[in-house]
Every structure is written in C-alpha cells, then in structure tokens.
Design a protein that fits this description.
This protein has helices spanning 4-12, 95-130, 136-168, 220-223; strands at 20-24, 30-34, 38-40, 42-58, 61-65, 70-75, 82-83, 88-92, 171-173, 178-181, 190-191, 202-207, 211-218, 231-236, 239-251, 256-257, 265-274, 285-302, 307-309, 312-320, 323-328, 330-334, 338-343, 350-352. By secondary structure, the chain is an alpha+beta fold. The strands form 6 sheets. A 6-stranded antiparallel β-barrel has the order 4-13-17-15-14-18. The chain has a 4-stranded antiparallel beta sheet with strand order 5-12-10-7, with no helix packed on it. Strands 9-8-6-11 form a 4-stranded antiparallel beta sheet, with no helix packed on it. Helix 2 (95-130) runs antiparallel to helix 3. The longest helix is centred in the N-terminal third of the chain and has 36 residues, at 95-130. It is elongated, with a radius of gyration of 42 Å. It starts with a helix and ends in a 37-residue tail after the last strand.
C-alpha cells in the first residue's frame, strides 16, 4: 500500500523520461502537462516576401518582316545564333530593284544635263536682253525653262532615293543585339512585304537575351502590398544556385477574372531583370520572391511564439520555473519563420512557443475559457496544434 503522503509527493514530481510533470487541476484530479518549450527574443533581419512563379521571356522580342515582296536568295543565320545590331540576317533577290535604281540614275544624269543647258540659255538670253538684242519675254521664258529643269531634276533625285531605299530593303539586318528564334523560312521562299494591305511574312524573331522579364499573377491581398520598383529576386529550378535581382516594372491596376474560378480575380505583375553574362533561355520557369517589407536588427521571436485572440497578439514571457506572464505585443514585419516585436518585449526575454497551462500563468490568466471540474488540461502552440509530450 502507498501512503497518502507518498501519493502527495508523486503528484508534484516529474515523470521520469517523459519531460512531463504531474500536477493537480482545480478539481483535484491529476493531469499530465508537458514541459513548455521556450526561446529567447533575439535581434535579426526579417524580410516579408511574396512568392509567385512564372516563365522567362525577353523584354524585347522583335518580329523580323520584310517591307518589300520578293524571293529569299540567302539566309545567314540559324535558330539559336547570337547576332549584333546591323548584322546581315538574310537577302532578297535584288535584281528588279537594282534595275529601277539604274534607270533612275540615268534619268538623273539626263535631267542634270537639261539643267546645265537651260542655265546656259538663260545667261545668253540675259546678255542679249541687256544689249537690246532680245525681248524681255525671251528672257523671262529662259528663266522659266531653267527653273523647270531644276524642278524636274529634284523629282528624279527623289525617285532615285526611293529606288535606292527599296534596294536596301533587300538586305534584312538585325535591329538590335539578340538571339535568333522562330526562323521558319527557307532559300527560295517568296515572301510578302508588310504594307497597308498585308501584315507581311514573319521571317524570324530577334530576342534581347540580356534584358528579360517574368510575368506572374498576384491575388488581391498580395497586389496591395507591393509597388512599382519593388525589389524582387528570381531563381530557377533548372539553374540551381542561380539568383538574379530584379524590379517590379508593371502591376495591373485592374483585376483580371481567373479563367479557372470565375469568382476570383488575379492581378498580373511583371518583373524585369538583366541576365548579365549568364545565358537564361526564354521559356524556363522562374520562382519570384518580391520584397514587401524589411526590418533590420529587429527584436523578434519565432512565429510559433505569437498567439492571437480577438485580433490581439500576445506572448507568454517566462518569469521563472513554471511561471509565465501573458503580455500583449505589437508586431511588425513577419514571415513564416519569425515575427518582429515592435513593443511589449525586450531582447533576451524568454517566451513560450507552446501555450502554458492555466496553473503556470501568473494570475491564472491563460487566455482560454475556464476548464470544467475534472477536465484534462491541454495547451496549444502558436500554430493551434497541441505540443507533443
């Protein structure tokens, strides 16, 4: 038989190997309570980020089209080639356009001779008119002929310039540095030029591989947390260990209805970044971390140490062995791991990461409804789950 004194002693001694202690609840019934896990408030830098994903695409992807009709006679690039601005990409048969240039040059020469002759005639008649050997009308007619010849020369030169411009269009050059893609034409293909009545044949695309962007979708809560020029960091599953810094350069001011769920709206966001010397291929997936807020050297605790009731946040500060004080706090920046404590807690204070029992809270204010007589006492951590024994 165990005496009453022995039973009383066992009631206050911790169970060996369990980390739990045996205490009497208000009804006089014993309840097993686990030891309360604690941590100290420390200073650290905390960042709150929004995590989304999207696909890489060039900020500039220029469709290359011809301005004239013709047959392709030479292609100097292939898909995947890197090109510089003004590099020759392909050539169109120039014979017809060269013929027009040659004809315009001959006409130009003829009009130049006409101008020279008209000018000589005008000077001769002027001299005669001044010596009363020609009428005023003869002189005025010579001036008119000279001016007409000059105008005709200007018209021909304009036609020649246009013919030369058309000839130059037979050589398709890169509009900027980049990589060739979507090249699906071949030597011998007859193409149409992009004009007022036709969109023209797309010859290829030149993609700017240095200035890239990723588009993603935010929900309404996330969209209200960021601004243009917010910092963002991009990583890639296909390129482990590679991270780039970028900026938010577009955020839709209007929600777009989600095609999958008609009751939800999404807000498209675009992040731009530069690849530097690293080749980032358009089309690969990217994980984007957009910085919302940052607190440096902030007093903070793990997220599990912060409890919420009635929109109020509080912690349990350890005062001594099995003694805790419930203390209301003001929080700042937070993420899934840590929360900034702006007031109510000091660096070095030790706080519980699981809710202490009523008997362990100074003044008995546990923040939970009173237990019925004989009911087993439980406590839950910041995540709402009962802590392990």
């Amino acid at each position: 038989m165990i005496s009453a004194a022995a039973l009383s002693l066992l009631a206050v001694l911790p169970f060996a190997g369990t980390g739990c202690e045996k205490v009497l609840n208000s009804g006089g019934v014993t309840a097993n309570l686990p030891a309360v896990s604690t941590v100290k408030a420390e200073r650290r830098t905390i960042e709150e980020n929004i995590i989304v994903s999207g696909f890489v695409e060039p900020e500039t992807a220029t469709e290359i089209k011809s301005e004239i009709n013709g047959k392709i006679i030479r292609i100097n690039v292939e898909n995947g080639d890197s090109v510089k601005k003004d590099d020759l990409l392909l050539e169109i048969d120039a014979s017809t356009y060269q013929t027009e240039v040659d004809a315009a040059e001959r006409t130009e020469r003829q009009r130049e001779l006409d101008v020279e002759k008209s000018e000589r005639d005008m000077r001769r008649i002027k001299e005669l008119f001044e010596n009363d050997f020609a009428t005023e009308q003869d002189y005025l007619d010579s001036v008119t002929s000279f001016e007409t010849a000059k105008l005709q020369l200007e018209v021909v030169r304009s036609s020649l310039a246009k013919a030369r411009e058309e000839l130059s269009k037979t050589q398709i050059r890169a509009p900027h540095d980049g990589m060739v893609s979507d090249l699906e034409v071949y030597v011998g293909n007859v193409i149409s030029g992009a004009g007022s009545f036709s969109n023209g044949t797309t010859l290829m695309k030149i993609n700017d591989m240095k200035n890239l962007r990723v588009e993603a979708d935010l929900n309404e809560i996330e969209a209200n947390k960021i601004d243009l020029e917010s910092d963002a960091y991009l990583s890639f599953d296909s390129l482990p260990g590679t991270t780039f810094h970028g900026k938010v350069d577009y955020l839709s001011p209007f929600g777009v209805q989600d095609s999958a769920t008609s009751t939800l709206y999404k807000f498209p966001v675009r992040v731009k970044f530069q690849s530097g010397k690293r080749l980032i291929r358009p089309g690969i997936s990217s994980n984007i971390s957009i910085l919302v807020s940052r607190a440096e050297n902030a007093v903070s605790v793990p997220a599990s140490a912060v409890f919420v009731e009635d929109d109020k946040r509080f912690v349990f500060v350890k005062l001594g062995e099995h003694r805790f004080e419930r203390r209301q706090i003001e929080v700042g920046v937070g993420n899934l791991n840590f929360i900034e404590i702006k007031s109510g807690l000091n660096e070095g204070d030790e706080v519980a990461t699981t809710r202490p029992s009523q008997s362990e809270i100074v003044g008995g204010d546990s923040g939970v409804p009173a237990k019925k007589k004989g009911e087993r006492v439980e406590r839950r951590g910041g995540n709402g789950a009962p802590p392990p024994m």
